[in-house]
Give the backbone structure.
Amino acid sequence: MIRTKPTPPVSLFNCLLSALAKKKHYSDVFPLYNRMNSSGLLPNFITLSILINCFCNTNRVSDAFVVVGSMLRRGFSPNIVSYTSLIKGLFMEEKIFEAIRLYKNMFKLGCKPTVVTYGTLIDGLCRTGNTNIALKLHEEMSSGNGRHGLDCKPNLVSYGAIIDGLCKEGMVEKAKEIFLEMKAAGIAPDVVVYSSLIHGLCFDDKWDEAKSLFVEMMDHGVRPNTVTFNVWIDALSKKGKRKQARDMLEMMVERGVSADLFTYNALLDGFCRAGKLEKAKELFYSLPAKGCEPNSYSYNMLIRVHIMKRKIEETLKIFREMIPKGVSPTVVTYNTLLCGLFHAGKVDDARKMFDEMQDHGMVPNSSTYSILLDGLCKNNRVEEALEIFRTLKDSNFEMTIQVMNTIINGLCKSGKFEIAWELFQRLLQRGPVPNVITYSIIINGLCKEGQLEKANCLFLEMEGQGCSPNYVTYNTLMRSFCDNNELPKVVELLHQMAKRNVQPDASTFSIVIDLVSKDKKYRECLDLLPTFPMQEKEKDDMFTFDSVA
């Protein structure tokens, strides 16, 4: 076409570029466009629109805006298709505020959004964890977009996006409402919508409702696909219902639906969570025969279960298989291995693994450093941990409270409380903001140092800093008061726990047993203790310490 004289019209080139873009051959579109330019062919509005779409779908939204500039210079105005592509591109790069700003600017530029634009916005907002904003947009659509003078009702795509987003946020009841609203509007749910809602119901432990919905789906002639079955198998495996998960796989095969790597990884996850090492290995090594090569997620699960069983040598052997088989270890892989090596006391091997991780181009994250510092402290190498911590402070590493908690805890447990206290004071002045774990560690340290009054003062200061104590914080302080025979203080703290609905655990009951055993009039002591409302899943009514006694 380029060599033909005279050159065919740009519209024919656009047909080729459009076909490639629809098939997602974006890497072919860009060089062909460049060849058109170098041959003196001037792109028209459609050419540039195709280019914008391709850039947005390849996470190159900045380049897409450059094309918009070129479009304006040539006297063209972006249309709703271009704006929708740009909004999608911004969401793909998690530039949420820019996407919303562009949506608002569309109205000022006289460009009215379509149902596709709204669907793109809702999907983008849900995918980036902004489901509440997406819900408001959906409600605006349902009520007729009166504020903007539009009549743009939700369609199957926008309903599917909002239902999926709500389910992933745990707002299953609201998702059910939207689902009923969708059916009332005469829009038949497809397999994607059914799968999303089934997923939400399964993870909300509403198995009977999920089954009813599955039956309804098939009664309406909607065939479950691989994703639908994967949702079931994944949920059942994570909830420890391994037999039901295998039964679902059998049903999947019977119905002629192909299992994929996600299916088998879900089953593998179930075996690993239950510590079923042999079953996990059997499934893992059978994957190639099933047409599925294990990926990094598969390896990470198998490595994790070997670490759980403290089989370090076997773990390292599995790890060494990864790269020769074309599977790249992830940060999670290395973090799991570091945990296992430190737990086994193989500190030098762990240090080598940490170095190897960086040699392979992996950037350690805050979890990596927490594992490293914790492992060194627990293996009596506190000075090394402090040295690494100081190096981090002097580098560009963004210190997290997770890392700070680890080093403070390590210092407290190794008898270096003064340094731990100094770091804690720095946190209060410079950040990151201490959380309930930080306060619990320091309160425990003060108690062990015999500074009970100071620990109590810090406990009282917590809430003033916007941090509510949890059962660990209460138990720590109560244990010290109990050991010091300050029984009224223990009773006072128990009443605070009950008032704030902080549930007691086994340690709390152990403290109470010690408390009443120290008081000869234990019955009177029990009468002073509070009543705790139990969680809904545990008990329907109130629970008292007296009932345990």
In short: Confidence is low (pLDDT under 50) at residues 536-549. Residues 487-549 form one domain. The first helix runs from residue 10 to 22. Strands lie at 531-533, 542-544.
